[in-house]
Amino acid sequence: MSLSHGYDEERNSLYFHSASEGKKLDYMRASPSVWGQVVVDHGYAEDECTHRYATVMFKGRVRFLESLEDKRRAFSTMINQLDPDPEPLLKRLLNSEELKTTVVGEIQIEEVTGKKSPGIVI
Question: Which of 44, 49, 72, 77 lies in the 20 to 30 Å Cα band around 83?
């Protein structure tokens, strides 16, 4: 399943947020052991019949964050990594009542492997 996410290097964790119900949450709550993949598509290589890419695969355990402090840390991580102008969004979201009821997950990474096309620098 696809997720917008942010990586917390200090905790070696991925954060994500979700709607409050759905199959994704049902699966993760039933089995918190997860496997995931992050792909950076560098596009088709003309005249080579191949795609250039970098990919990271990981295994981990998901937990759902309850405290407002943990949710703020997660959203701050995601927004700072994904939004080109994070300050207005951080100011609005981190102090909103919405955050209390938003489902936020943390995937604590246990194993990592990866692969990339020759010549791709990561």
Answer: 44
